[in-house]
Description:
four-stranded antiparallel beta sheet, Aminopeptidase, 12 strands, globular, alpha+beta, 30% helix, 31% strand
Amino acid sequence: MRLPAGLRSRPLGIDDVDEVVAMVNRCELADSGETMWERADLVSDLSADGVDLDRDWVGVFDGASRCLAWALVQRPWRAWVDVDPEVRGRGVGTALRSWTEERAREVESSRVAQVIDDRRSEVGRMLRAAGYVPLYASWILRMDHPERPEPPAPPDGIDLRTFRPGEEIELFTMFEEAFREFEERSPRTIDSWAAMTVDREGFRPEDMLVASDGDRVVGGAFLLEAEGSVWVDKFAVHRDYRRRGIARAMLQSAFSRSYDMGARYTELNTDSRTGALPFYERIGMYVRSSYTNWALDL
């Protein structure tokens, strides 16, 4: 990897997780004014299907062994790259982008893609110049909580409750069937899904909200508490039960949880593949930030 003088790259390991998270949060703070990542986020990402912990992530360090940039390639074609503001504009991002492309080719991916904050327009221009094209748009939406939210009102026959051990397979299947409808989305295994949800560091049953019709799981929302907010990380309703108010009821439950814990807002992510943006806006959520998914066919 061609890097500026004084910087070096090496494969990352589990012992580097905290250092990488700290560096990514420095990037988030500079770019958006707040931090969004914690250790459990990276650990769960590293548990995704097919991640080779010896070859799929790399870090850039200075002489004091501080992590100043990193890259991760996830199967089948997702890449993550972050560069500390201290060393931006020196070719580090370009070097890491080239590394992700080469690594994707090694594992015979047909494409490599990055999600870029639209406020980082210079990165978008760099990717376009390198042959990348916009694949789809995504947004982070926020609901503020200046007053107590309306209580959840699920439709008749639908129960909103917390996760029960033993229903992992049914819940996973519901999420997979719902997400499989979207283009450019690769299926997960239950082990990968569990690592990101019920086996995630610090998971509690109340972190997974479940909508059920009798014994049948028909919806779910995975809630992550952060400082001052709740993040709805995974959110789906089975296609046979949509347009009945279940999604709204689950969100109202998440909003109430946020308010009760003293959080200022609740956030979630959606993208242009789902067509769900108007729904979220109708219930009072608003776009806080927007992103573009840039892709390069290999």
